[in-house]
Amino acid sequence: MFTKPTLTHIDAEKGTLDVPSPQIADLSNNEKKVEHIDVFPVLSLKKDAPFAPSDVAKAPPAPAKPAKKKVPLWVLWVVWFNCYRRFFTVIFIVNFTGLGFAIAGKWAYAAKYPGALALGNLNVAILVRNEIFGRFLYWFVNTFFAKWTPLWFRLACTSTLQHLGGIHSGCAISGVAWLVLMVVHQFKTKYIFNDSILAFGVITAVTLFITICAALPWVRNTHHNVFERSHRFFGWTALVMTWVYTILTNAYDTADGKFDHIGAYVVRQQSFWYTVGMSIFIVLPWLCTRRVKVDIELPSPKVAVLRFERGMQQGLLARISHSAVMEYHAFGIISEGTHAKHHYLICGVQGDFTKSLVNNPPTKIWTRQLKFAGVSNTSTLYKRGIRICTGTGLGAALSTCIQSPDWYLIWIGSDQEKTFGPTISGLIHKYIGPERLLLWDSKARGGRPPTMKILKEVYDSWQAEVVFITSNYVGNAEIQQGCKEAGIPAFGTLWDF
């Protein structure tokens, strides 16, 4: 209800797999081979340099590990205090300033209707996490502002859409704070309220508080199942309790101590319609949940490639689960376009869920048919861009480069062809030419690349406007900091804060 997918499980916008692949037989023996797969040459970074497969026939010596450069404090601050935190800070300050005025008796409306402010904040918190609303925002921005508007405006659009979680978190915490104020006021004058109203007020506040606590980074990142179950089911419980609390509060007449304000009177109250809106925002995405057919390819013990029917536009992410309501995991969607027969998910084998895909491959799986948009969806805003990713982060990046000739792909991984198999390799080989492709196999090349050197040279030669990064936590931070210092507009993987 109040958060994003987590760090410890494979995330659609996180490239967390960067491990050596086991030795596997030649692809020619693979019965699932779609087409002949060539070795992908690495594009020379020097302009006008001859390009041939012989350039990468031999693995070069491992690059010398450079001394770790000290990152300027201003870079660390700008990257840390991103739009997410700015949204959160503004919403938190505004709401808690209002709380202060209400407590001091300087804001009559807030003192009289704290429930409306509580439910209003909770509505906004849920709305910005709603997949349908999110898809509408991305569609609106991509339709009306693509390419012709100033670059700073398009970058601001991408940043705003990517960091809506700051609004989500800020409004959720503020909503609970306003609810606590309402309950405290009722207890101060408890002689005029029925005990059931006071009881449900406390229960509602407690369940919402637990929902928020379950979404704290430490819980999400280290105890995913605890987070998912607590956040979801306490959130649903809080919704039910909110309905009961709202109806009881509005139906009760403090003048005669009876529940005689029923029917039309309750429906006319603003808190009733706030609760209706909140319920719709929560329920609608779940109406799109279906159990669908899935084919699973296992190119190596470290990766499962899931194939689903129908094509997709670029920049979308899918949630999948073994259960209709439990433990949904998000992955980037790979597709050739809306005209395609299939789309694919790359699932790196790390947690219990992804291990089960390998150990006991299902033939059907639960998913939401309405896919949600990720930051890659705004790639249509830009004239040219670079998608840099590591490991399974390719899943969130590949569709953008397949569906648009204006995007350059840099993919860093280990033993990529053997680890990810013929389907993924075939899509890369078929749709992305060597003039906009750089594959760095850290196993063949003896180590990690000089990432920022590569990125700066490609950024200049490709005349890119923006860089999208999909990597693990450390890689994402290093590239974002390097881009900020170099003056390169870049958007990296997000972890909720």
Any overview of this molecule?
With 497 residues, the chain is α/β, with parallel strands linked by helices. It folds into 2 domains: 8-68 and 290-369 and 382-497, no CATH class; 74-287, no CATH class. The chain is built from 17 helices and 13 strands. It has helices at residues 73-80, 83-103, 108-112, 114-127, 131-144, 151-162, 164-188, 195-214, 217-222, 224-251, 264-267, 270-287, 352-359, 394-403, 416-431, 451-462, 473-486; strands at residues 289-293, 295-300, 303-309, 316-321, 329-335, 342-348, 364-368, 372-373, 385-390, 407-413, 437-441, 466-470, 490-491. Strands 1, 2, 3, 4, 5, 6, 7 and 8 form an 8-stranded antiparallel β-sheet that branches. Helix 8 (195-214) packs antiparallel against helix 10 (224-251). The longest helix is centred in the middle third of the chain and has 28 residues, at 224-251. The two termini are 15 Å apart.
- Largest pleated sheet: 8 strands, antiparallel
**H-E order:** HHHHHHHHHHHHEEEEEEHEEEHEHEHEHE
Helix content: 40-55%
Number of helices: 17
Distance between the termini: 15 Å
Total number of distinct structural domains: 2
Output the structural class.
Answer: alpha/beta
Assembly type = single chain
Spans with pLDDT under 50 lasting ≥5 residues?
1-60
Number of strands: 13
Shape, principal axes of CA atoms: globular
Rg value: 25 Å
Tell me the fraction of residues in β-strands, as a range: 5-15%
The average pLDDT score comes to 85
